[in-house]
Design brief:
This protein is an alpha/beta fold. The chain has 4 domains: 189 residues, Glycogen Phosphorylase B (Rossmann fold); 196 residues, Rossmann fold; 166 residues, Response regulator (Rossmann fold, 3-Layer(aba) Sandwich), CATH 3.40.50; 270 residues, Aldolase class I (TIM Barrel). Helix content is 37%, strand content 16%. The chain contains 31 helices and 30 strands. Strand 10, helix 13 and strand 11 form a beta-alpha-beta unit. The protein starts with 8 loop residues before the first helix and ends with a helix.
Length: 889
Amino acid sequence: MPERRPIPMHALQHADQRLGALACVALQPWRWARKLWSPARPVKRVLAIKFWGIGSLQLLTPAIATLRAHHPNAELVFLTLAQNRASAEALGVFDRVLCVDVTSASWLGVFGRIARLLRGLRRERFDEVYDFEFFTRFSALISLATGAPRTHGFAAPNVWRGGFHTDSAPFNRYWHVARNFRVLAGGENGRNVTANDLAPHRYDARDVERVDALLEARGVAREDAFAVLNPNAGELSLERRWPRENFAVLADRLAREEGVAVVFIGSAREREYTALACEPAASLRVLNLAGELTTPELVALLARASVVVSNDSGPMHLAAAIGAPTLGLFGPETPVMYGPIGLRARALYRPPPCSPCINVHDNKLSSCIWGHPQCLVAISVDEVLANARGLMRGEDFELVPERPRAAPNPSSFAERPGVPEAPGGPEVHSMRVLLLNPPGAQVYIRDYFCSKTTKSNYLFHPIDLVVMSGSLATHHDVQVLDCIAERLAPDQARSRVDAFGPEVIVSLVGSVSWEQDRAFLADQAERGRRVLALGDVLHERSEERLKQEPWLEAALHVFTNQDVVHYLAGNLPEVEEMTIRDDRARVWRIKGRRTQRGAYRVPRPRHELFPEHGYHFSFAKHARFATVLTDYGCPYQCTFCVISTLGFQTRPVEDVLEELDELRARGIRETFFLDQTFGVQKARALELCKALEERGDLSWTTFTRPDRADDELLAAMKRAGCHTLIMGVETADDELLAKYKKVYTREDVVAGFARAKRHGLRTVGTFIIGLPEETEETLESSLELAIELDLDFMSVNMAVPRFGTPFRARSIELGLVDPADLVMDQGGAEAFLPTRTLDRDAMLAMKKRMVRRFYLRPSYLWRRLRSAKSLYELKAQAREGLALLLRNT
């Protein structure tokens, strides 16, 4: 009877995806019960889990060292697959190694072994579990089954793992996996893992003797130089193989041109494949040791090699860690995440546009669009040979870049995901960078090139800093200090800044608080800190501002690109739009290198750096919420709005979902999408809504226009969790709507709000009053329209000539505004402009009367009281309403 083959690994992966998801659903009651009845206890025994890949085990060692430091007296136990036992034991960093064998020929056998494993793990009584798998539900289920009070795991975007980990860490796809491992273990996240952090596999004299004997038996003496070639890759990702015929040519040329022996390695099941690569050079000193070495013997061999050339696989990481000259060949995966870490390790990466296609977010399953892998064909034998020679001779050489580009930029992000840290990019010296929202005498909102005092009691996250946090934290040690959210006085803020000791401060500034901002930041510059700033007051005539303010090193004008990263790296040719001082102290504005159109990509914003408390949002259903941007700017040309001057760019839906999934892993289900017109690109908006609907646990608010909100979009938004829609009414006067380029009419407004109501969405109507043509009659008409629309909330803003807008230019031309007057409240708490028939005091009085008449209607108050679905919502609306009325009495 023929021997039955074990179940292949890809079948186990598919089972993990499908059966694992069902198991996660079925075990939700257990998860809830554990939260109630699993009190924390002293940590005496810790379990670390990592199943796949001996290379991953090698990269895990810095994280294990972190666990040792945190729990010096605890027993550290490791759980892995049976085929990895020898590698795990050779690392010498675990007290015990437990294994599970999933190589059974039947599913019944696999499930039986897992059941026995779970019984054993329960008896161990682990106090903490660290699940270092990125995507498997199997490991998450094991974490739950151990019964440990605390379990730690990655929150993998697009993969629901049951919520079984009590502590989750987002997997950062812009970091190396070793750095992600260490952060999950509780290590510092501001520093990359280096060769000195790795614990190489151990081997002893007997392993060296065994390797020497094998080599001498095939004609390679102890003093002979040899190269090691690994043409293999794990069965899960055969796309990682550089063509076998290329390895054959490389072996022949190394033997003939360099005079070295060549040793091919691999596992026993890879021996036949490896033998085919050896055949062309069989007459030379080319050896096939695939399947003949234990793990310690393999490491002993690698340690002696003059050079190791390998596909992206375990032996590559072992060689780099042991200090061997190592050249890794990459195609479907990126070296940013998986590159070899070693003092003499290099990576070659020449991918097609579709790479990287294998990563932790798609279960490491690839569906090649070409039908046959094209990932490594662009890497030539000549390139590999030149790099191998350089490594053997200890020479410096230029790596072949992945693309002929100078640095990361939005167009390269659009081509392929990730922020490359490959050659050709900026050489960034890591600095301590503080993202600062400075202190103020009032609750100021400074963001998105607007500044204002809050109209009631709301304060949401400053989106400029949120977006830039991902880009900066990829390269620097970053902290966030939001003095407004934390209600810090200037002296308290200075102490907090000093405690961090930043080299660079990237600060928000605003016209509403300009005098306070400039005083605080000038003081920081006197303390030797570099100050970069962005905000409305710097949006126009920025060169003049820098000449007047010697403390200000540079002004940023876009926060969704990589300008701040390039500038700090000294890479000025890649800066798109900034105002800077050059090395001769001359001020000049870099402008127009790229238009803000198309798509943009940024590393995942680091919401975890922002304060947990201090933010309030009038329309949120839950106390904890996040502010998220899915597009930048606005394509409409409303003349009084600064956003219309910024261009318009969209962000890939997959990036938005990664950010949202990280927030969900942290227990945040409420979101304020700060897009200025949600649904501008309808197909993209529907795609995002569909993904949010599938998640089923998000609650959100956003802006759109009444003429964009059709039935299809509104229905999709409602299903996706949207509960509140903010739309611009502006005025009831069609002539004013046309004059200020709103491109819709009162009739469009009435129809749009009616559609939103039919779909069960709360509505917020925003009004702008005090335009030069405003009269008492137009104001009364706008109030009547607000009541007719049956709004849930009304937001009234005074007309303000915002920096950079056509409305400001016209106001200056008419003599209504002094261009030297920089201090103004763009939220309109005070009337800034008179109209042709009303002075400022009359305008402000009418605005306050309009607010009172709308909100103090008995029918409205009763409706608001009935609509509150929770105690939090009732308290929040009462707080916001009281603050609003106090400001308008």
